[in-house]
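User: Hi! I'm a student and our assignment asks us to look at how structure tokens line up with a sequence. Could you show me two examples?

Assistant: Happy to help. In each example below, the sequence comes first and the structure tokens follow. Example one:
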Amino acid sequence: MNGIPGISALRSICQPNDLDVCLYRKLFTRRFSIYLTSLFLRMGFSANSVSVVKGIIACTGAVLFAPGKPVCFITGALLLQFSFVLDACDGEVARFNGSNRRAGGEFIDKIGDTASRGLFYGAWGWGVYNLSGDIRAVIAGTVMAGLWLVVRFCAVETLLESFSNHVGTPAGREEKESLEKIFVRNPGGGRVEYYLSALFHPWVNMAAAAALLSFFPVLFSGLFWGYFTLWIINTVRKIRSGFHNSNFERPLQ
């Protein structure tokens, strides 16, 4: 494909300075993603095509945590890391082509992200069970896989329903505050979640840490249960925050 600039020029177009909250993505992932983005553009790939490939690779990597074999864990973690690079690429392709202004691409992107994360939680629980025989891990993984989706869905649907009830009227102050807390983009929106996302990007890199510890079953199980405990505490906090945030007053039409 003609008209694709060099890497430096492409980086300036596709990677604006204020693009990322996550330092891991900004300092590590973006260094490599731009080369793949250049390749995708030259091959004529659309951003949606990259999103679909990313989703398939991410879901495959997540499922590989279920068999309970270290080689599967390592392969799964590598695939998840690669999918995270592709997750940067689809947005870069969209920014170059101008298709980032259409929300459909974001919807496709979110399907892959959501499916792979839910699969990872469930598969991780099965992996712990297959290594240790602790059936409770399957239950815990299933709880994480399902509950985070339910909480997120209910919070977002509440906001969407509120917005639909005052079409043509600007969002109210409380609605905006609720939106900021659901999609954390600054420390004021959710301090703990913001800094975790900025420094670590929790679940993708947690998969890598789990894979490395899979050679030591006791540590592997300990990491799972430690993460599950912190996850439950954070989910309870989000549910409480959701009830508080959803108690906003809708603007009048």
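Example two works the same way, sequence first and then tokens:
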Amino acid sequence: MTSQLLKRSIQTLSSVAAGAVFFLTTSSLSVQAITLVTNRDDLEANDKIDWSSLEFGTPINITPITANLLPNSFQTTSQKGLGLSVDIPLIADSRYTPPFVFQTTPTLPTNFSNGDYILFTGFIPGGFPALGNPGPLTITFDQPVQGAGTQIAVDDTFNFTAFLSAFDDKNNLLGSFSIPGTSATVLNNSAVFLGVRSDSANISKLVYNSSENNRAFGINFLSIKSTTIPEPGSLFALSLLGVGLLGLLTVRKTAF
């Protein structure tokens, strides 16, 4: 009787343990949803890249802009050390400036916030509306992130549609999104925010562009949500589960 009761108890525990392992395995393999984020606070970012931090380029004065000219492709790091690369197509026309970073101020107003540093795709100075590099602007992370986004505005265009596509580390499309945007010369932080967030850290590349095929566009600082570390309680619970499974297997082996 005692041996039969012990056997039934162990079989029950085995079923529970197997169910727990199955739950953990299938949860980790489940499809991860990616969603559009249009408010920076909703991204719950824990990292960022401010374009003022770029320590390379060529300072130049394009009245009324004091700018830092950049290569069309470059690499940099976030505030917390995440590596990333930026790529903007080169236009084979010497009249176009390369991409550059400038600061929005009352004498150079945009509808970003006063003092924001803007990464701009490049344009032909003079005239209105100015011909500009339409991109796309591609940001590739050295390690996949859970979310990222920035505000965007198009040069000399009051109304436009902004587009964002996100890809994983195998260049599979995770999702594409579009939202209407406006540009203005009022420092009111009204430039639209366009970002994405996923259930897991599977976002390796972001591609930004707009509906305007011959206009430059700019983005301000990029907010990033990196992978979070499990809470100590979660780690402790997982370790207990591992110890329990190991003990169960040992009991079964010795009992039978």
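Here is something you could point out in your write-up. The first helix runs from residue 2 to 29.
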